[in-house]
Amino acid sequence: MVATAPPVGSSTEDSTRARPRGRWAGPIYSIAPTLVLLALFLGPMVILLYYSFQKASLAGAGGWTFDNYTSILTDPTYGKVMLTTVVICTISMLIMLAIGLPLAYILAMRTPPRFELLFLLMLVIAEELNPLIRIYAWRMILGRGGVINWTLQTIGLIDKPIDSLLFSSTAVVIVLSTTYISFTTIPIYAALKAVDSDLLEAADDLGASFLTRCRKILLPLAAPGIFVAIILVYIPLYSEFAAPALVGGTSGYMVGNAIQEAILESGNRGVGSAMSFMLLVLSGAVAWIGYRMARIRRLQATS
Amino acid sequence: MSVTTTKIEPEATAGDQRPRGFAVGGREGRSRAAAIARWAFLAIVVVILYGPLLILALFSFNDSIVIALPFKGFTLDWYREALQNPLVRESLKNSLAVALVVTPVALILGTMAAFATTRFRYKGRGSVAALGAGPLIVPWLILAVGALLFFSKLKVPLNLRTIAVMHIVVAFPLVAAIVTARLVRFDHRMEEAARDLGATHREVLRYITLPHLVPALAAAAILAFSYSFNNFVISFFVGGFELTFPIWVFSTLRHAQNVPIVNAISTLVSLAQLLIVYVAWRLWRRRSKKMAANDDPMDMLW
């Protein structure tokens, strides 16, 4: 090996070099970001936990209690809202995976590079645009005089407009599952991009059918990406609140709406923060499982 | 003192050179059908993603207060009305002001965090990184609720400042993630070589590291800006009575039927955002041509 290779990270030999490169440089760089997060990220989380154990009172806090949690866990209304939320989020996630998986596969393996970049850019830009605008756009499509009802009426399939298209859990599923397609696709795309295409060709040459190739090679290799997509998409879905508020009606009422109502409308901080905190714990659990699975699958895939 | 060996990793092959694709190979009939199916699928996805927005834009020219088919005629009145509406103007002004404050602060904090977690070793580095991942994982609604309770507990008045502060909290970890990805892939030896040739820390930063980070910083800036400009949930909770553009859209739609001026202004805002991305894209293309870049074009995206 060549003798000129420098000892990495030794700042002793030359004092004119970089002062902040010593032992303190790292901590110095991290001070400002860390302080910001400690105060404005951990602070709110701690306050949330605190209020979730406080009795409701006009002054804001009225002594320690478990009531908020017990009332959420025993009240069937909350149970129903939670069930609706789980169903809506899970169906939306499955729809997005059903779109995102083939899309990622096509982009990573089957598209000429020129178009690959173009499509990726289109995906990213779609994500950049204001989500509220997208929700509103769907309202125009699903509404009474909307595109779908008008088309169906014009070709004579229905006599009266279908009212249940909008302001229903179906509408929420439609809106949500078109909102996060990019976030679902891109991690899977990244995972597939790392796949050696020789592997696929070998399988192809050995006569594996398309389905076999999918099951034995593509899916296992895409798995880390799928778990990342679940972390990125499934978790935020649970706290969605603009979409159900604008197109959900009563059947599309989700936990996010319940939290918003408790905190901003009925002023019930205890219940609102207890629900938020439960959602937070749930999110953490999903994120942790997803992260572990992604790592395990990646290790399995590379070994 | 030991001399470290620098491992030389093989450069990743630049792109897949194999002809990919569409109707390649022996089983022609079948692969042709498959190719058509693939294009059709891509087309459907594009329609799902952009179709609704196109319809929204079309209705902004419709000469009727009721948003329903069939079209009544062409008009630009909604644009005139939208641009003259004082609430629209105020909300856009507020959103822009907040995003213009959030973007540079998030860039600086995010870059610092990225350096802190990739370029140095020290006790607690792991905790710094874990803390930075927090705002990326915790749903915004929960952070928003927590922040609202936090500010009201501390008797901080809710206004554009609290909105900006909380936008910074969610935007800078994103910047940090993007810059970190770039720093990790960036060859250390270039910085070390410069140092060995006598460059000071500042010079290394100025002439080696920062120029290399430019695409990542540009992408991060665009994302941070749109994070802030588009953010609804956090602004809604910690904004008090202040109006930002997403809040205006939400409350207009919540309390009324569909309103054509929302179509008009949404079309304009979307076009402006597309324009920003397009300009950035062109600049990046020019830069990468000039540098004959072996830059990965994907770096622009994340």
Fold and architecture overview:
- The complex is a heterodimer of chains A (303) and B (302).
- Chain A is an all-alpha fold and 303 residues long.
- Chain A has one domain: Orthogonal Bundle (MetI-like fold).
- Helix content of chain A is 72%, strand content 0%.
- Chain A has 13 helices and no strands.
- In chain A, helix 3 crosses helix 8, helix 8 crosses helix 10 and helix 9 runs antiparallel to helix 10.
- By secondary structure, chain B is mostly helical.
- Chain B has a single domain, classed as MetI-like fold, CATH 1.10.3720.10.
- Helices cover 71% and strands 0% of the residues of chain B.
- Chain B has eleven helices and no strands.
- Chain B is globular.
- The N terminus and C terminus of chain B are likely disordered.
- Chains A and B meet through helix 1, helix 3, helix 4, helix 5 and helix 10 of A and helix 1, helix 3, helix 4, helix 5 and helix 6 of B.
Summarize this structure as a short list of keywords or feature phrases.
heterodimer, A: 303 residues, mainly alpha, MetI-like fold, B: mainly alpha, 11 helices, 71% helix, disordered N terminus
